[in-house]
Predict the 3D structure of the following.
Amino acid sequence: MSFSIRKSLHPGLNLGEDHGDDHLEAETSVFGFWVFMMSDLVTFGMFFAVFATTMPLACCPGPKELFDLGSVAWQTAFLLASSLTSGMAILTLKQEHGGRGACTKKLVFWLLLTVLLGCGFLYREISDFIAMAAAGGPPTRSGYLSALWSLVGLHGLHVTGGIIWCLVIVAGILVRGVDLRWKLTLLRWAVFWHFLDVVWICIFSFVFLGGLL
Amino acid sequence: METNKEFRHYLLGFVLATVLTIIPFTLVATVGGKIAFFALILCAILQLIVHLRYFLHLSFKGQQREDLQLVMFTGLILLIMIGGTVWVLGDLYNRM
């Protein structure tokens, strides 16, 4: 049966015609993941809404005492750079793994670089959490602080999950090679990772920078 | 070549996102006040668009399915829920 393969079957980067049937297989799985991602965004949205309805109280330390602008800038840089490297990983998958038995070195390199940058982000974020607790701002102190810790913490948990997911993918690729299953997993993971950066834009803009104004 | 075009696409998105990050950080650290506040919101919205366009490959043309509608519907839901929450609780606060 001959029919023309559409270039774009689902949102995000598509594998493309070089991948033959794998490209067609990706449609339902990646589109479904986008639907999940949108519901995850709504969850984040509600955490933002709760945060927006609280305000720092006079009793407890506020943004000026708790936030470290330099550290937030570092976290932003780490996450933005990791977004680019995850994009490079997906681009490598699309361009070099159309046939069977392509060398996986380049793909694994970009994935591990992404993991490293993600760990840099987490290291900075956890240091900030520890410093905040030490400066008298643990989550139990006020409603504002609870909302702040939950929102930023939820994002941090997502990053941790993304890193673990990526390591599982690297292990899977090294053991099984880049087959259909890992291709689809990689496509979904890339969407997840890019959305973490999208959520972080809102966090650094409205929580950290907005709080310091 | 197709390969280089896609690579440049990512790189352009990365450069745009970097610029749109540096602007608000610099303004908040130096100028502050109302100008920084509005620049902050503008840069955040622009950077969201850059990420969706260059990293997640969403656009108004070339989408075969209702992908963009899925994202825009989610945006609408978020707008109603966040806007509604802030509106109702802000109103209550003003009456206290």
Observations:
- The radius of gyration of chain B is 18 Å.
- Chain B touches chain A through 47 residues (CB under 8 Å).
- Chain B has a mean pLDDT of 89.
- Chain B has two domains: 1-57, 63-96.
